[in-house]
Amino acid sequence: MRGGHFIDGEYLNEDAARVPVARPSNGVASASFPSGAAYARADVRGAYYQPTILTDVESNNRAVQEEIFGPILTVQTFEAEDEALALAQHAEYGLASSAHTADLGRALRFTRGIEARTVWVNRYGRCDDSVIATGGFKRSGIGKDFGREAFEANQRAKHVLIHVCT
């Protein structure tokens, strides 16, 4: 088994089982699909996956349901706030999410309603990892990294009670 980021090196080829998900043959045929994977340079081992935006994506699409860990953004449209929350909750994973709105009340309702470990409002992906514990909800993992929660999760408390007779 090889460790490392899923889109490194030989993982990015026609036979890749997991990455890239954003390929018509891998279940995103219903989405609008601008570009695919390309090797950055023929003389260098490794690969580069171009940032991709998938529009008109159905909620059961692999690109929506799986944790991709690559430069892929899926866009789903909705009519009402509760529909947007239902779309977000439909995913089996809960590592991170974001809401973009000028309405603070709507942002707070979304952050309370979404089942994800990290929720950004009006941005995505920036935080001080040294103070914010990371690790997902749902199928996004059971471990935690960074922050007080991770520190406490990696401790083993021991109580020693000694009665001294006088």
Give a description of the structure.
- With 166 residues, the protein is an alpha/beta fold.
- It has one domain (9-153): Aldehyde Dehydrogenase, Chain A, domain 2 (3-Layer(aba) Sandwich), CATH 3.40.309.
- Helices cover 18% and strands 13% of the residues.
- It has four helices and eight strands; from the N terminus they run βββαβαββαββα.
- The chain has helices spanning 62-65, 81-89, 104-113, 147-153, and strands at residues 37-38, 48-49, 52-54, 72-74, 93-94, 96-99, 118-121, 137-138.
- The strands form four sheets. Strands 1-2 form a two-stranded antiparallel sheet. It has a two-stranded parallel sheet with strand order 3-4.
- The longest helix has 10 residues, at 104-113.
- The radius of gyration is 21 Å and the shape is elongated.
- It starts with 36 loop residues before the first strand and ends in a 13-residue tail after the last helix.
- 16% of the residues are buried.
Keywords summarizing the entry:
18% helix, alpha/beta, two-stranded parallel ribbon, 13% strand, 166 residues, Aldehyde Dehydrogenase, Chain A, domain 2
